[in-house]
Specification:
- The chain is α+β, with helices and mostly antiparallel strands and about 850 residues long.
- Among the domains are: about 90 residues, no CATH class; about 190 residues, Dna Topoisomerase Vi A Subunit, Chain: A, domain 2 (3-Layer(aba) Sandwich); about 70 residues, Roll (Endonuclease I-creI), CATH 3.10.28; about 100 residues, Alpha-Beta Plaits (2-Layer Sandwich); about 100 residues, ACT domain (Alpha-Beta Plaits).
- Helices cover about 40% and strands about 20% of the residues.
- The chain has 25 helices and 30 strands.
- A five-stranded antiparallel beta sheet has the order 1-2-3-4-5, with helices on one face.
- Helix 9 crosses helix 14.
- The radius of gyration is 34 Å and the shape is elongated.
């Protein structure tokens, strides 16, 4: 039995109780977020004199760390959704960029506080000394209003430092260099919307960003220079209407930069002189900026919105999302005693995300029945198939159904970033489909949202080519050549990086060879080989007088190897490993105080739920939900592998079908239910499986990363009470159940065999891996020598499976089986131990199996020594 707060090798004495909420508060309070970020590669670019805020930079990411109450918080200035405490910072930046779950965050932050180096796993970060808590405690702590005022003062000070006293455009040299004429700059649309920022002798062109509260930030530009103040990106650059202030706006043009807006005006406005308002987001639009653009539309009520983003993967992604998010001016309607904007219905929604290589489109269909959803998915699949058929190099768009219910179906489409245009075609059709599905009163006027791509990469580049006198066709050809040149340079950089990586690997291999060829290393290998050959020679001599032991039948061999092979292929561990490896003391006797503690936990869980229920019957089915996350994007199968292991375990729990979703990063998150009954004789085994799985996941075991079992506290406490009195305990169970048919109700009263030397033996499986230099064809290597010696000892050694890597190292693997009750168990055990000590060999064996094997060998040796004396 395992009580909360009890200790085991997986839970040190000072470790907090699993999922203890006070531990998260301790992390927030005791960890210096600035110090933690610096260890993650961030550097301090600027900080206040009092130390109450810091500006951190890593690559192109700018993070502001400030104080909130008794802990620090951060904000990514380029993404207003990336903000929060040290918990959020660690969760979004761990896992080699793929993120961590909460259990992994707990483990990583525990290691940081303990000052110990983090173990090597998919987020290989090393920590040194623990943080200085005195520095944290010395930071000023104020109320929320004081913090808001301090932030407002900081924003005002930063903007004032950039703009100076006079907010005027006194230096036009940078804009002239970008092809912007004085006629454009003197248009009523841009008066007071572009300034010259001067700090000492340096002058930059400044574009102010506004929100509903006024000036929010400033973007500065110059030749080979671009900077956005380290403030929340919750403002937009917005012009006046081209016809002058306070005139009715007919059109809104949205682009990525103010330079592109000026260029678009200079290229297009004369051809279609509608009264136009220009908006720019200074790069990737944040959620706050999109909401602000919609508020501008609500206020100005334009007839159309033109999306004038770049002609590249990023610009197409922005357009895809604008198509979903922007709508005509929303009416204000009374809600209670206030007013709110009335949103149009969204029978279809979508959102595009991207990584370095791919762009994904998540589409959600809302419907009245599963049949209607199936029809919508079928229609989308047929459209994707037609798009794929037009591709010369074969299908490029991949479609995956992530989730489907009676009310909603979620589909994910993925394509290489270079082919993002294909997703834009899909988004345009979804846009038209949504308008058809909406009620007539909610439909947008035709062509309210329109995409206007430049002939070149962006509108400023098109302006440059136009100034050179190039025609439209010539501009397209020049843009294509430039794109090909950039792609060629990118490929050259990639090839150079790969070459440097190969050279570094070769240098590491050379250093390893020199180390392995040293006299000390060679002497050690010779000693190990000599000892190994001595042991194997002795076992081979004894084996000549007796036949080799084998399985009792081929069926028995298949039954005992099937589960192991499945677990190995899935990258997991055997069920019996996490039962026997440090099992909870489920078989020990508990005193009445502990019993009462468990009952109190169950009663408390009921009260917390606000429901008064009668005492549950032991025969009622209980449900625990297993959640299994994939460790890499665009992979699958972990949840099914864990479910198969539970299904094949031979114990009385049952599992449901796997349910799964895929997040925006491409990580599949799956779950399934496990049902069990507390009156089953193997309930202690089931209890050990659940508790040990959660314990190993919390301890950071690599095989358990992303795996957890969730259940009500009352169910856990009730199961723990049932486990202590169960007939089958982890230490006395019949191992034949590991691959046998699950016990039925009629078999629940059967007696279990007693544990000990007199009990029947069991079949064991071992994997032996051998790494050695590749030998000549026909020459017997070290792997074959190990195979022959183990067979001679009485074990059953399978075929040697080998591969040779690029470095000429042969990697071999073989399966070895034996029984703990066979007469030769002492020789088998001795040979396995000797093989494990030989350089290049690795014996993969469960710790509990090794202990049982060695105990059986000692018992066999004693019996052989005593038997002759008894005969006399």
């Amino acid at each position: 039995m395992e009580l909360s707060g009890s200790t085991s090798p997986a839970h040190p004495m000072n470790a907090p109780r699993e999922n203890d909420p006070t531990e998260l508060d301790r992390f927030k309070r005791d960890i210096d977020l600035v110090d933690y970020a610096q260890r993650q590669g961030y550097t301090i670019k600027k900080e206040s004199r009092r130390g109450d805020w810091h500006h951190l930079v890593k690559d192109d990411e700018h993070v502001i760390v400030t104080r909130k109450g008794d802990h620090q918080v951060y904000l990514n200035t380029g993404d207003d959704r990336d903000a929060g405490s040290i918990i959020d910072f660690a969760k979004t930046r761990g896992g080699d960029g793929h993120g961590l779950n909460l259990g992994q965050v707990r483990q990583q932050l525990r290691e940081y506080l303990d000052g110990a180096p983090a173990p090597a796993r998919q987020y290989p970060t090393q920590y040194a000394t623990p943080p200085d808590s005195a520095r944290l405690n010395g930071l000023p702590v104020g109320d929320p209003e004081q913090a808001r005022q301090a932030e407002e003062e900081r924003r005002t000070r930063l903007i004032s430092e950039v703009l100076g006293v006079k907010k005027e455009l006194t230096d036009r040299s940078y804009l002239h260099g970008r092809g912007i004429t004085d006629a454009t700059l003197e248009s009523p649309a841009f008066q007071g919307r572009i300034f010259t920022a001067q700090q000492n002798e340096h002058k930059n062109t400044a574009f102010p960003l506004y929100n509903e509260h006024g000036l929010a930030s400033v973007e500065q530009k110059n030749e080979h220079y671009k900077s956005l103040l380290p403030l929340p990106k919750n403002g937009i650059w917005v012009s006046h209407p081209t016809a002058g202030k306070d005139t009715p706006v007919e059109r809104v043009v949205v682009s990525e930069s103010a330079i592109d807006s000026l260029s678009h005006f200079q290229l297009r406005h004369g051809q279609d002189p509608k009264n136009t308002l220009y908006i720019a987001t200074s790069g990737t639009p944040t959620e706050a900026q999109v909401a602000l653009i919609q508020r501008v539309i609500d206020k100005q009520q334009p007839q159309e919105v033109v999306l004038a983003n770049d002609r590249d993967a990023g610009g197409r992604q922005f357009n895809i999302n604008y198509l979903n998010e922007l709508q005509p001016a929303r009416p204000l309607v009374p809600v209670a005693e206030q007013e709110a904007y009335r949103e149009a219905s969204r029978p279809v929604e979508w959102h595009a995300t991207s990584d370095k290589y791919h762009t994904s489109l998540k589409v959600t269909f809302h419907h009245d029945s599963a049949e209607q959803g199936a029809g919508q998915v079928q229609q989308l699949s047929e459209r994707v198939e037609k798009i794929n058929q037009t591709q010369q190099d074969g299908p490029s768009l991949a479609v995956e159904i992530q989730r489907s219910t009676e009310q909603a179906t979620i589909v994910r489409l993925t394509v290489a970033r270079a082919d993002t245009a294909q997703l834009e075609v899909v988004a345009q059709e979804l846009y038209r489909q949504r308008e058809q599905l909406r009620p007539a009163a909610e439909r947008q006027q035709e062509a309210f949202l329109r995409v206007d791509y430049p002939l070149a990469k962006d509108f400023n580049k098109e302006l440059e080519y136009t100034a050179q006198g190039l025609s439209a066709e010539q501009i397209r050809a020049a843009a294509q050549r430039e794109e090909q040149q950039q792609e060629s340079e990118r490929q050259q950089r990639l090839a150079e990086a790969q070459r440097q990586e190969r050279e570094q690997r070769e240098a590491e291999r050379q250093a390893r060879r020199e180390q392995e060829s040293s006299p000390e290393a060679q002497q050690g290998r010779e000693q190990d080989d000599k000892h190994f050959q001595t042991v194997l020679g002795a076992t081979a001599a004894e084996a000549e007088q007796r036949p080799a032991r084998s399985y009792r039948s081929e069926q028995e061999a298949a039954e005992h190897t099937a589960q192991f092979v499945h677990a190995k292929d899935a990258g997991l561990v055997l069920l019996k490993e996490y039962i026997h490896d440090n099992p909870p003391p489920a078989g020990r006797k508990v005193d009445e105080a502990e019993r009462e503690d468990l009952r109190e936990r169950a009663r408390y869980a009921e009260a917390a739920a606000g429901v008064s229920l009668p005492t549950a019957s032991p025969t009622e089915a209980k449900t625990a939900t297993w959640t299994v996350d994939e460790l890499e994007p665009n992979t699958t199968g972990r949840a099914e592998a864990w479910k198969a292991i539970l299904d094949n375990s031979g114990y009385s729990m049952q599992t449901s079908q796997v349910r799964s979703t895929v997040d925006e990063q491409g990580i599949r998150r799956a779950e399934f239910d496990m049902t069990y009954r507390n009156d089953q004789p193997d309930i202690a085994i089931i209890h050990a499986i659940v508790t040990n799985t959660n314990a190993r996941a919390a301890a950071g075991k690599a095989q358990y990363a992303g795996v957890s079992v969730m259940e009500p506290e009352a169910d856990r406490a009730a199961r723990q009470l049932a486990a202590e009195a169960a007939a089958i305990q982890p230490h006395n169970r019949d191992r034949s159940l590991d691959v046998a048919v699950k016990p039925g109700v009629e078999a629940t009263t059967g007696d279990m065999p007693a544990a000990g030397p007199s009990a029947p033996g069991s079949e064991k499986l071992v994997i032996i891996r051998v790494d050695e230099p590749a030998s000549s064809p026909g020459e017997r290597g070290q792997a074959e020598a190990v195979q022959a010696a183990l067979t001679a000892s009485g074990a059953k050694a399978g075929e040697v499976q080998s591969t040779v890597d690029a470095e000429g190292i042969r990697h071999s693997e073989m399966k070895v089986s034996y029984r703990t009750d066979q007469p030769e168990i002492a020789q088998v055990s001795q040979a396995l131990d000797a093989a494990g000590r030989q350089v290049g060999n690795h014996v993969v064996e469960h710790g509990s199996d090794r202990a049982e094997r060695q105990a059986a060998a000692r018992h066999s040796q004693v019996s052989q020594e005593v038997a002759p004396q008894l005969e006399r």
